[in-house]
Specification:
253 residues, alpha/beta, Dna Topoisomerase Vi A Subunit, Chain: A, domain 2, 2 domains, 5-stranded mixed β-sheet, 12 helices, globular
Length: 253
């Protein structure tokens, strides 16, 4: 741990503002927040600027009260910080094992691999459960997670997961997950959950089917208890209330 404390040029890319609000002050380095939900909406693009434009348009249409200007001010600004990390820096990526976090993690690794040279990447994971994630750790637990971070040596393979996800190449995504299984065993369950979530002509997809089952079992259409139960049963997805509410409303329409 002392060796980590002495490293200069440390950067910490967090999975959200909830972690930022609780991030231990004694951990050195600059904090950047990856404010995205790439598991939801359009991700195909011709360029990075096109990607941000499409994401801004989607987020502003899918989530009322959030404008395109908000997206550029709160999300793109953080991504630009990532691209400006100096060469040779030590970058700690604080992401959980659920699908929501994993897709964002793959994207951030791809972004770093394209724009920052010679940096060392480390993955920081919460040693709790899918249900609790970093939220289940106190300050001491977050400090311990930092100390247990592991260097990511398979940078190209992780970046390739994002590229496969972006172009909807399911075969390449599954192959990539299997290649990483020995080092990152949590990737494969997330990828399998993603495949299960894709609706087809005769299948609503796993998340919506789970929501329907919960509403029937609880005999309620109140969103609060349905969301809480969904989060317990389907922690692998990592969906927040906004993502689940959109699926919930589509079922109720």
């Amino acid at each position: 741990m002392e060796e980590k404390m002495l490293i200069e040029n440390q950067f910490h890319i967090l999975n959200g503002d909830a972690l930022k609000d609780r991030f231990p002050q004694k951990i050195p380095g600059e904090v950047i927040v990856a404010r995205e939900c790439l598991v939801d909406g359009e991700v195909k693009s011709e360029s990075l600027s096109d990607f941000f434009a499409k994401r801004a348009a989607y987020i502003s249409s899918a989530y009322p009260g959030f404008t395109e200007a908000d997206y550029y001010g709160e999300t793109v600004s953080e991504m630009e910080k990532i691209m400006k990390i100096p060469d040779g820096a030590h970058v700690y990526l604080w992401f959980e094992d659920d699908l929501f976090c994993q897709v964002n993690f793959w994207f951030v690794v791809a972004l770093l691999s394209q724009h920052v040279r010679g940096c060392k990447l480390y993955l920081v994971r919460p040693m709790t459960s899918l249900y609790y994630g970093f939220g289940g750790l106190d300050q001491a637990g977050l400090w311990e997670a930092y100390g247990q971070s592991a260097e990511i040596k398979e940078v190209d393979q992780v970046a390739a997961l994002w590229k496969a996800y972006q172009r909807e190449d399911h075969e390449a995504l599954m192959q990539g997950a299997r290649k990483l299984e020995a080092t990152f065993p949590f990737v494969l369950p997330a990828v399998e959950a993603y495949f299960d979530s894709i609706p087809s002509k005769d299948d609503l997809g796993r998340p919506k089917k789970t929501l329907l089952a919960i509403m029937e079992e609880l005999e309620t259409v109140a969103f609060g208890p349905v969301f809480q139960e969904f989060h317990k049963r389907e922690s692998i997805y990592g969906y927040g209330d906004l993502q689940v509410k959109r699926l919930f409303d589509e079922l109720r329409a």
